[in-house]
Each structure stands twice: as structure tokens, then as C-alpha cells.
Amino acid sequence: MTTLAHSTDTLTRDALAVLQPGFTGTTAPDWLLRRLGEGLASVGLFGRNISSPEQLAALTAQLRAERDDVLVAIDEEGGDVTRLEVRTGSSFPGNHALGAVDDPELTRAVARELGRRLAACGVNLNWAPSADVNSNPGNPVIGVRSFGADPQLVARHTAAYVEGLQAAGVAASTKHFPGHGDTAVDSHHALPRIDADLETLYARELVPFRAAIASGTKAVMSAHILLPALDPALPATLSPAALHGLLRKPAAEGGLGFDGLIITDGMEMRAIAATYGIERGSVMALAAGIDAICVGGGLADEDTVLRLRDALVRAVRDGELSPERLADAAARVRALAGWARSQAAGAAAASAPDAEVGLRAARRALRVTVPATAAGREPAPYEPMSAPPYVAAFTPVANIAVGDETPWGVAAELTRLLPGTGTGSYGGGASAGDGPSALTANVLGAAADRRIVAVVRDVHRHPWMADALEALLAARPDTVVVEMGVPQAPPAGALHIATHGAARVCGLAAAEVITGKGAGG
Question: Do residues 205 and 246 touch, judged by C-beta distance below 8 A?
């Protein structure tokens, strides 16, 4: 009886240790603190949990008062995906902007400063960077979250990012293994499939992950994607072939030789939840080689934690999951927690603040073009705006990773530099009326006689946006175009600015060019 009780207690603690749950609110609920005392070793934070750096520091201190080595994780990529600055937009450009500059030292400096700010707030695990090679321009969920389409470029910047982040004492979780860049489906909504062969996988998708592992990434996050060449039946998160047979397999035997923590992407994502369910999916993931279950982006309550805990314990009792596998996963979580605690005292202090590195990077990432005229004549030099313009933001539906609560565009920064700037948001639905001509008429009516700044995001992926922009430029060829997504379409307008991302600092850098004014005004 004593042995059984001890065994049950051990299983329960191990089952809690492998979970990375979220919660609602800006202070830790009682149930979460209680579970930390019972063995929970990690907590995931989202934008809903953060109102200011001071509040975040108080929250993480509250968690550590219950468990001093708790892993506090966050999805802070910078750029379009920010939780620290979810209500204002990020002070750091994202991966695509850093890849456009292609200066690994700059990428390392940006990641180090981002890590320093996370560490100062008590966050010690970042679900970043994205090491995905954006080989499919139509990818609906990666795009500017990727450093680019060249595997070698992505590899050198992934390595630099990992090194910079971890130099600040924050563990990196390189994602989305084995590569989400060639998908045409968002795994938040369905299960993507990549039909690349193994030769392509090794030559393209895996190159940045090898670089991340060589640079010492503490964690790798799996993707909920199906690669039939690797496993014809199971997505990577649930696939022993992907995890044990590739990620853990020694490099000398053709694998990647990774010995750190393997974390799932969010288990509520429909690629898993709608196909296997989160309880069964979590059991399958642990059995396949996952060490930590990320849940809480959508399901953020005690009941979810208890359901998953009990499902894992039951799976051990029923022989679906070995107690050794669960114990190994829990030990890996605790080992990373120990590393993070050992870093807390010195790493952040060793890195001097560099408040302007994000803006410097955003400025360097700009690609400014004065397109040739239709007749092929040399275009007139661009004259910076001195009067308040009208900003027309052509706004697509945001993917779930980015969210729709983070502001984007150039209107706020132009308003600061040119008070009186007007703005309107136009989508491909009701605001488009009968089509691009109606949308254009709405923009022209609102702009009146002011210069127009048209702000677009991945215009190549949205036919309604491309058509509306073409109609607007035909009516007002002096329009300035700012592309804040992946710049695939040919430059157009009196001035074309590609920012390679929609972070706040990218908008500021573009506004400086439009007005000819620096940040100081």
C-alpha cells in the first residue's frame, strides 16, 4: 500500500511537471499556485496576462514565491508576434526584417536585448525563435515570422538569435520542428501536410534546426504538421519517427542529436484537438518523445490541467505510456528549470541595456523604392510629406499567432510626426462594398485632397487587396505604398516602402522616410 501511494504521488508530480498551462488575469489564481506546490514546474504567459513590465515582474515574483525554479514561458518573437507589447506593438522588428538586413551580429544584439527585458520581468523561457524556412510565399501563418526563404540565411540568424537570447539567461525554444515554412494551411485551424521528400527536408527544413542545436538551444518546439516522407500517419508532435527517429537520433547516425527539452506547440490547435483530442494527443505526444505539453492559449483553467494530469497518470496505469518515459520528460523539464534559475542572477546584469537596437534594426531593414513610371521614364525624386496625409490600411484577417489586438501600420507614427493625419481601415469583406472600385471610392472620399499612404500586408496573398491597390494607384498615382508583410509583389506607387514586418518600430522607420523626419521630430 505504501509503495502504491508513493508511486501514485510520483506519477502525479511527474504528470504535472510536464505541463505548461496558461491562465487568465494579471495575477496568479489560487489554483495555479496550489498546483505549483504539488509539482507543476512551468507556466505559460500570454498577452492577456500582461499590462506592464512592472505588473509582469510582480506576477513572476508571485509564482516564484511558491516555486523558486518555476519555468515562466512566453511567446515573444518580437515583430508581429508580441506578448510583452501586445497593446502597443513591438519595440523590435521580427525575423523577416532581421533576415533582410542579414547581419547576424545585429540579430544577436536584438535577441540579447529582448532577452534582457524578458529576464528583467522574470520570464526565463521564450517560445522562439522561428527557424522555419519560408519556402512557400503563400504560407498563411509563417511569413514575416521567418528570417527568409534561404535555408543558410535562416540558419545563421537562428543561431545568432539563440545565442543572443540565451546570453541574457532566457532559454530559447526553437520552432516549429521539423519546419512549418512550406505549408499552405494554418495548423491553428487544420492539419497541414508537406509533401517534400527526405532529401528536400534535410537540405531545406532541417538546416536551421541543426544550426540552433549547434548553438546550444535549450529547447525545440514541435509542429503539428504531417510529413508523409517522415511519417505517413502521424503529425510531428505525435510521431516517434520525427522525435526519436530524427530529432533525438545521434548526428553520427543521420539525426540531429538534440538532447534538450522538446515542447509541443499549443495542444488546443485544431490540427491536434480536432483530430485526436487534447488528452489523447498529450499521451501520444509524451509516448512519442515530447517532454513538455504547451496548453493554455485557449484552454486556461484548472479543469484543463487536471484533465491532462489525470490522462497521463491513467495512461501509465493502462500501459499506454511507460513510467520511465514520463519520468524522463519530467526530469528534462526540471533540468531546464535548474539551468534557468542558475542564470537568473548574472546573465541579465551582464548585458548592458540597448534601448535603440530595435529601431536601428528596423531602419536598416527598410527597402525604399521609387518605381519607374509606366512609360519607362525616370521617376521624379520623392518629396517628403509636410502636410498630414490620409492613411488607408488594407487590413487582412490576422492569423491566431499574431492576434488581432496588437496595433500595426504607420498611422500612429505619422500622426505623431504630422499631427492631423487621417486614417481608415479597409478589409476584403463588407468595407469593400461591391469590390475594389467601391473600396477605392471609399478611400478617395475619405482622403479628399490629402496625399494617401496605402498600407498593405502580404498583398500577394490577398487578391482583393491587390485589386483595390491597383485601382487606387490608377486614380491617385502619387500614393505612397507601405508593404508590411513579405514583399513579393512588384513595387508600386510614388514611393514604395517594404518594412519586412508590422512591428511598431517598423512603422516608425517607414514614417520617418515618408516625412523626412527622424525619431526626434
Answer: no
pLDDT digit string, tens, across residues 404-414: 678 889 999 99
Q: How far apart are CA 373 and CA 78, in angstroms?
A: 36
Q: Where are the beta strands (DSSP E) in 38-115?
A: 42-45, 71-74
Catalytic machinery residues: 188, 265
How far is residue 224's CA from residue 191's CA, in Å, rounded to a whole number?
A: 7
* Cell, residue 347: 546573465
The pTM of this model reads 0.94
Question: Could you identify the residue written with the cell 499612404?
Answer: 453
DSSP letter for 233, please: S
The C-alpha cell of 197 is what? 521528400
The CB-side HSE value for 336 (13 A sphere, CA atoms) comes to 32
What's the order of all strands across the beta sheet hosting 390-394? 367-369, 495-498, 480-483, 452-456, 390-394, 422-426
Q: Are strands 125-126 and 261-263 parallel, antiparallel or unpaired?
A: unpaired
3-state secondary structure of 71: strand
Q: How far apart are CA 338 and CA 326, in angstroms?
A: 18
Cis preceding-peptide flag for 176 (omega within 30 of 0): yes
Question: What's the rounded mean pLDDT across residues 117-133?
Answer: 96
